[in-house]
Amino acid sequence: MSQFAEPATKESLRAAALAQRDALPAAERQAGAETIAARPFPVNIAPGVIVSGFMPMKSEINPLPLLHKAADQGARLALPAIDKRGKPLIMRAWKFGDPFKAGQWGIREPVPEAPAVDPDILIVPLACFDRAGHRIGYGAGYYDMTINALRAKKKVIAIGIAFAVQEIPRVPATERDERLDLVLTEREAIDFRG
């Protein structure tokens, strides 16, 4: 676990965790992503299950090796597209080789013609997390809104993916923050469901 002073705000926790993540060498970040994908997928992939991931930016852990594994096990894939600020993400069907468009912040998104889907499993980016299943994202609340909207429709499993150095002692969670079911790091799979 990283050693953080007890900053009072999500902003300071986010900044400290991202500095830890940014300090990891690129080869170590790639090895971490491959280590996570080499383990058994943490949730059963039944035929037709939709797994959404994300396109990594900056020093984020790369979820694509894990998405390859899910697809190899029969999952249908999806990636997020930003609709508007203050709205849940639109998860669009996607498979390796499909075209992209540049979305907000230059993040690659499926093209608008790709159908919207409701994933069963979400692989979620994060800035930091704690052992209670809480996460701090990047501040816009997109994933909290999206997880909340999907959980209102059906059972959805939210899996955070991060480097072990992104763990903090406690996230100052609010009632708007959606709890993760698992977090996968290069060191371990942490299951909060039990």
TrEMBL record:
Q: Which family does the UniProt entry place this protein in? A: Belongs to the 5-formyltetrahydrofolate cyclo-ligase family.
Please tell me whether the keyword Ion transport is annotated for this protein: no
Question: Per its record, how is this protein called by name?
Answer: 5-formyltetrahydrofolate cyclo-ligase
Q: Which residues bind substrate?
A: 55, 60
Give the binding site residues for ATP: 10-14, 135-143
Q: What class of enzyme is it?
A: ligase
Record the organism: Pseudolabrys taiwanensis
In terms of domain of life, where is this protein from? Bacteria
- Recite the lineage of the species: Bacteria, Pseudomonadati, Pseudomonadota, Alphaproteobacteria, Hyphomicrobiales
Q: Please provide, alphabetically and separated by semicolons, the GO molecular function terms listed in this UniProt record.
A: 5-formyltetrahydrofolate cyclo-ligase activity; ATP binding; metal ion binding
Q: Which SUPFAM superfamilies match?
A: NagB/RpiA/CoA transferase-like
